[in-house]
Amino acid sequence: DRIVSANSDDIERAAEAALRPRRLEEFVGQPVVRDQLSLVLHAAMNRGATPDHVLLSGPPGLGKTTLAMIIAAELGTSLRVTSGPAIQHAGDLAAVLSSLTEGEVLFIDEIHRLARPAEELLYVAMEDFRVDIVVGKGAGASAIPLSLPRFTAVGATTRAGLLPAPLRDRFGFTGHLEFYDAQDLERVILRSARLLNITIDQDAAAEIASRSRGTPRIANRLLRRVRDWADVRGSGHMDLAAARAALAVYEVDELGLDRLDRAVLHALCTRFRGGPVGLSTLAVSVGEEPETVETVAEPFLVREGLMARSPRGRVATAATWQHLGLVPPADGAT
Ligand code: ADP
């Protein structure tokens, strides 16, 4: 997978687990969400009650799973983990719910991907702490209500807008995670380096931070790759030169763009004179599926102002030409 992907796979998850902050005060950045969450949790604890259900929204890799774990830790309870795609049938969710113990936190990742019947079961469970177990089929079927212990659901979604309103309304609190600024990412990197027993100069951490696309997951991954370089080709110590050399090997440039991002921009400027060009045409010209370009490269490029979408297709911006060191055609679209 791409080194600058915001998603992780199973192997990487093990490496990530070691770097997760365990308590709210260790969680770097996101002051607004941290403060709000701290209030929600402490108010409930003072009342001796279970906190409201919590929805966390934001792009991948910003700390939603970490926060769910922190919520359980702050409450002194255990965490149960599931996800929208893992629940195939409403019965799967009923089984998870009915095995919860009093006060537990149930984390549902990618909650926007729950199938409709499971979603409906979840409404009732969240609101009334009850599931209706259907026995029998057809006309003879009947629902047996089963009461559940009070639990706190923590849902995570990449886009709160994708959630149906009735489900969204069941959450007493929604925290929106924002991309991190370079300063906070630098703190993430310095913290991770400490945990991994890596010695790193501050300017090296800043260099990695500025190429991490506002995402702690990417920052931690780049840190590991720079460590590899420092161990194998350097002195083991991570200084600015090591960080730059390692990131050059992995073809991650100063803005955090990788080979695919640059290929897309390059094609847009040199083959299509800065556009507008249709997504499929652009994708074919770099040998990729349109979906890959649209979901993997485009969001970051658009967010950084390196590409724009117009009704007639993708267009280069002044920043695109500048980043590639190219001169736009005098009569060009941009
Ligand atoms: P998400 O669930 O939003 O995809 P995760 O919670 O799995 O993201 O975070 C990805 C990685 O980034 C984890 O290794 C986590 O430790 C690290 N991370 C995320 N947010 C922070 C933060 N605020 N401070 C320190 N590390 C963080």
TrEMBL record:
Give the binding site residues for DNA. Answer: 309, 314
Keywords from the named record: ATP-binding, Cytoplasm, DNA damage, DNA recombination, DNA repair, DNA-binding, Helicase, Hydrolase, Nucleotide-binding
Please provide, in alphabetical order, the Gene Ontology terms of the cellular component aspect for this entry: cytoplasm; Holliday junction resolvase complex
Where's it mainly located? cytoplasm
EC no.?
3.6.4.-
Which residues does the annotated region (Large ATPase domain (RuvB-L)) include?
1-180
UniProt keyword Transport, yes or no: no
Q: Which domain of life is it from?
A: Bacteria
| GO terms, molecular function | ATP binding; ATP hydrolysis activity; four-way junction DNA binding; four-way junction helicase activity
Chain segments carrying region Head domain (RuvB-H): 254-334
**Protein's UniProt name:** Holliday junction branch migration complex subunit RuvB
Q: Which organism is it from?
A: Rarobacter incanus
Lineage summary: Bacteria, Bacillati, Actinomycetota, Actinomycetes, Micrococcales
Q: Which gene encodes it?
A: ruvB
